[in-house]
From TrEMBL:
SUPFAM superfamilies: UROD/MetE-like (SSF51726). 5-methyltetrahydropteroyltri-L-glutamate binds at residues 24, 131, 545-546, 591. L-homocysteine binds at residues 461-463, 629. GO terms for biological process: methionine biosynthetic process; methylation. This is 5-methyltetrahydropteroyltriglutamate--homocysteine S-methyltransferase. Residues 9-328 form the Cobalamin-independent methionine synthase MetE N-terminal domain. Residues 456-778 form the Cobalamin-independent methionine synthase MetE C-terminal/archaeal domain. Catalyzes the transfer of a methyl group from 5-methyltetrahydrofolate to homocysteine resulting in methionine formation. Pathway: Amino-acid biosynthesis; L-methionine biosynthesis via de novo pathway; L-methionine from L-homocysteine (MetE route): step 1/1. It comes from Dimargaris cristalligena.
Amino acid sequence: MSAAATLKSSVLGYPRVGNQRQLKKLIEGFWAGKVDESALVDGARALRTQHWQLQRSQGIDLIPSGDFTLYDLVLDTSYNFGAIPTRYQTIPAGLPQYFAMARGLQGAAAKGADQIVDVPAMEMKKWFDTNYHYIVPELGPEQTFQLTAEPSLVAHFKEAKALGIHTKPVLIGPVSFLLLAKASGESDFQPLELLPRLLPEYRKLLAQLAEAGATWIQVDEPHLGLDSTPATEAAYKSAYQYLADGLSPSLRLLLTTYFERVDDRMALISKLPVHGLHLDLVRHPQQLPGVLDQLPADWVLSLGVVNGRNIWKTEFATAIDLINQATNRKPLNQLVLATSCSLLHSPYSLEFETKLDSEIKDWLAFANEKLGELATLTAVFNIQQSAEPQPKRQSEVDAALEANKRSFAARRTSARVVNPQVQDRLAKVQPDMVVRPTPFAERYPKQKAHQKLPLFPTTTIGSFPQTKEVRQARLKFKKGELSAEDYRQFLLKETERCVRIQEDIGIDVLVHGEFERNDMVEYFGEKLRGYVFTQNGWVASYGTRCVKPPVIYGDIDRPNPMTVDWSVYAQSLTTKPMKGMLTGPVTCLQWSFVRDDQPRRVTAQQLALAIRDEVDDLEKAGISTIQIDEPAIREGLPLRRTEWEAYLKWAVDAFLLSSCSVQDTTQIHTHMCYSDFNDIFPAIQRMDADVITIENSRSDLKLLRAFDRYGYHNASGPGLYDIHSPRVPTVEEMNERLAALLNYLPFQLIWLNPDCGLKTRDWAEVEASLRNLTATAGEFRRRY
Ligand code: GLN
Ligand code: ZN
């Protein structure tokens, strides 16, 4: 070992699913009974080995273990500590029980078992402000914890050790774990109260890791950067004091934060008895000086300079400036260069992107390329400091720095990125472009007359069943087995059939069915300039599910209309109003990899202008009901409350910019897949959509209470039935639900519709459900 002080590199977590989604295939095969348990276990181990070896070959010093899971790491934490809700306790322990918690179980409790169970899955929730979803721990006041006999964290550490790789175990800290949990049942119980019962089990786990030979432990406490209360502050203090008191002298705890800044939390953090701190310097580089001022002298500081959750290269010059701030104040051996957060949120490798435009590809770095960036950055500092031979030569490093500089210079000035026309339009956006000229109360009656709408109008959210035939035709078309014209003819027929069925059922405002779309963002991304698509850029969304978000790399504009042909064709088939269907600017932004060279706000504005053009073209083509879906507005909320207002200002402005150019008689709808509006209600009102359709059927009147409390002024369609279930709702239950709505909303402003799009259902269910929905409409038209 060199005595010279050198800088180490660290990865906070590596994607688990495999570069060809091997793990997804194994697990789903296991669920389907096609892969047996030993094949699953072996396949999973092979992936871990591959991932560790790959990181080692790139020269990473602190390679994570314990970042691998068959479903979700928060679920693993619950499982390892024995926090298994009662409803799963009769299911055989091991994979059957674990997967039942993850996904619910209907049928035999385990393969070949006589016992039949029917248990829903545990709740899933978004992991901070990412598009990953974790399984929410369910904890009650009586909860006890018991560390499992063979915690996976210890097993994986040993597994890597046997390969000659000394890893850094990663665990979710006790305070964040409890803050991620919810109270089981309906109680107001605060899971954080369970801390004293949980800590002894954490201590046991740490002891086992020490015994196995671990040194650095990465303890993730992402909640440290979020809004805190005296109770959470006290919890961190007592938790880390307790763990320190029992800590093996060979262990060192690296307190790990990400997604938020902690310079304003240092009064608390610097008192915690740990050995180091990790910062997300990609999201919040400005926190570094404040943290350095207050960091205990003997702590290690891990500098998260390589973005773990986006696909852009790291600009070395900027990162080096930042690292220099730290090297000026601390010796190299007390500093670590790291990914900003786990690479879970990055796709694997650019090596599989054989079709990506080479100019744009040069600007990107996926997980493996990020490993290379860490190696280069550490080399920059280590070569100067050490007389010992280094893994990288100076000339190699110089070449990498030079190439990086060239790449950024090219990106900054590329005509692909900067579009002067778009810039010019943005500069000309005026305040009157983000407000409808006439108030709702005046325009709504005009719309009703124009569209000849009855009382309690019925509609749907947009998509109709994406049947096997539809998906197969799309696949054949993509593979070149079906000509563009044949594919189009097929879609036209599907659309026509969909219109006829809606007419037959008696729906008032029809939709074309969205058969031509495979995804509500990708469809528009493919038609806008400024977007590219990857072949293999998969990232985990939840469990085994991965998504392949499109990449926004440049100024957005719309060369041609995107949906007008489909809507006009569908309208030509019927005299009923046909609703145009668009995805809103904030949702396009949220569900894409976005540019890091301009604020999200600006990208949203560009998207809004493109959608505004589409709205105008639809209106000109005679479509006078237009829905702009914004299911992602809520998930864009910043992690700290103090920043909500600023976000909601630009997010709602973007929606308004996309929707406000229309005449009074054109009716704007929007749709959201949730009903948790309590804390964002004024923003929803300010969107000023004529009609908002929302998820409601699963949410015990929460939404209606919010509507009632704040008095929503515009028309709304709270979903009358749950589309996530194959059940056909009866007329009676929809009557009841509507009657309940009428206690809160004026009858003149209510629309009848399902909760969300129908693409995952089959036609038989859809037809039966919608017939019942129109029966409910008929019933209430007679009553009012
Ligand atoms: N219009 C879309 C559909 O019906 C909306 C999807 C969504 O809300 N996520 O499928
Ligand atoms: Zn929805």
